[in-house]
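Subject: GTPase

B.,
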Amino acid sequence: MSSPIPVTILSGFLGAGKTTLLRHLLKAEHGLKIAVIENEFSDAGIDTQLLGDEPVQVMTLSNGCVCCTIHTDLTKALYLLLERLDSGEIAFDRLVIECTGLADPAPVAQTFFIDEELRERYILDGIITLVDAAHADVHLTQTIAQAQIGFADRLLVSKRDLVDEPTFTALSERLTRINRRAPIRVVDHGQIDLAELLDVRGFNLNADLGGGVSLRPVSKAPSIDRISSLVLRTDKPLDIDKLSEFMNELLEEHGKQLLRYKGVLNILGEPRRMVFQGVLKLYGFDWDTEWAEGEARESVIVFIADELPEEKIREGFARVAAD
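Prediction pasted inline below.
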């Protein structure tokens, strides 16, 4: 069985430049065989003559990329691509899914966890969200735009040339308050190094909390957004049973508010790091490498969530430390 196909989810509001970025991705001579699933609601079709009556249109472009336009649910399109891949009709080794401007990336991401067959054939690599620097203030009044930022493993800021330095700095600080994990990059008219988009490994179970092991510092200004990041740290070893109880209770009561979360933990009596991460109520955990001799064993968890009761979580986490 060949290794699973990495999937990148492209999110962001209308006009942020998703289609421009996709065009660049589909036309560049990068030597990669990328399939793109484009939703029929996107602001400007990559190739408008593709839009016919068929529920799924598939076309191979001159550089070997595959463009797929769907008028049906995502799962059907994913299976159809696999059928054509297995039959030799098309060839691709990566997949990019463009979400519509007002779409919540969560259901798209969950597709790759819930469906067992799709989970074997595809692997979610990362969620990339485009942010329009010129209109971010307007877009971010909507919770769904904040959620798109909260879900992201990478934030790409477009139209940077249309705003001054203080505006860009203020936007960067706001994005950091919403999402402490995701590095911020500037994308210029769809041009960006592909290394920023592919092989992000945002959903890998490893000790990298995103953007390097250290989380980006955040200014002390209060958050004006419903979605924000909460980082918990302790150098006390954690009791694994209490941790399990804490997480189960948290997911039971607030699972729908937890957009993304990831932790690297020091468990009492265990020489290896424990890593875990999740999206909403779906999460996984594993043992990672051993702590190095003399290394400070600090547990760090980052939650990106919608209106989480911060004090309640801090108190609950404090009880997880082993007596």
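The domain at 227-318 is CATH 3.30.1220.10 (Hypothetical Protein Yjia; Chain: A;domain 2).

T.
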